[in-house]
Input
Amino acid sequence: IVMTQSPLSLPVTPGEPASISCRSSRSLLHSAGYSCVDWYVQKPGQSPQLLIYLGSNRASGVPDRFRGSGSATDFTLRISRVEAEDVGVYYCMQALQTPYTFGQGTKLEIK
Amino acid sequence: QVQLRESGPGLVKPSQTLSLTCSVSGDAISGGNYYWSWIRHLPGKGLEWLGHIYYSGTTHYNPSLRSRLTLSIDTSKDQFSLKLSSVTAADTAVYYCARLRSFYDYRDNYYYYGLNVWGQGTTVTVSS
Output
């Protein structure tokens, strides 16, 4: 399954919203009704960390300004108000079937 | 608090075997409901899922690595390991171990919580 993200580069003014799109080459709908897509962020000098699982569930400790949505083949990660600490590379990942596959990554930077 | 830590040589010669170990602390690796995973970050590129192993020894591999990859688990030491044979420069990367929480309950209900714990990563360079 191929995951395609856009944009690949995202300059954002602090306090403004941001949106990242992720499209899969086939539906990621699990037989249990879940959308099997996660969102991860890799901040500078750090390991990747989980933001969103199953399309829209925030991981523990993730601020509510992060929101995941979408279904089937089209998914979106939205940040309602970008902060300086949000700088990093954001990846979507499909977990419907192995091999799990990641998008190319979207580099969010502060203007 | 569960923590993962990768260990292994930072430099491997071409055609040799890359061996890495991930040590788990704060929880027993045999606790079930988790798949112990390996992901790598290729330089200038993105993340690549390599494979994962369940405490029972069940494995899933990325076919792109063909038969070069072997994962193993030692529940007595709370460790799991990766061996990648016949390495080339293309295997130069930062290698991460991670914990994936995913399981079916006794009613066959599916639960999934993502790769929610990662190690700090270890850089492996393949060079003569």
